[in-house]
Specification:
Length: 143
């Protein structure tokens, strides 16, 4: 396991403009990643629960960083992601866990599951990830 690589991925995540100012917590380990996203009213749809886009981001981020934990030289790209929305949430946090289920030379496949604070399953998804040509460097926050 390369703890330095995992910590650099976590810092890269926090420095991405889309995560700027957020209180999201990411923890990366070998082949896995966990994410905690506090629920905020700014992400509600008209019925007063979190919009599905937040579920997607949580699941994709968890699966993505699980995949990139196994690739130490380049950024991986999401090439496909399927999501199943199961239950609404309007308070607390979304806890997403991603895990690589298939690692081969052409692509990685990772699955992710999101739960609320009480442990209820909110959503699940799976995606395929490919190595890009973009090196993991300080220029993209990998430091």
């Amino acid at each position: 396991m390369n703890e330095t690589h995992f910590r650099k991925l976590e810092r890269m995540y926090q420095r991405a403009p889309i995560n700027d100012g957020g209180e999201t917590t990411l923890t990366v380990a070998e082949g896995t990643a966990t994410l905690e996203i506090p629920v905020s009213r700014e992400s509600y749809h008209p019925l007063g629960a979190v919009h599905g886009a937040v579920y997607f981001k949580a699941l994709d981020d968890a699966a993505f960083f699980a995949a990139n934990s196994l690739v130490e030289d380049v950024f991986v790209l999401t090439t496909n992601f399927n999501i199943h929305l199961e239950r609404p949430v309007s308070e607390g946090s979304i806890h997403a866990t991603g895990e690589v289920v298939n690692d081969n030379p052409n692509q990685l496949i990772a699955e992710a599951v999101a739960h609320d604070d009480a442990g209820n399953e909110l959503a699940r998804g799976s995606g395929t990830f490919q190595k890009s040509n973009a090196e993991l460097t300080a220029d993209i926050g990998y430091e």
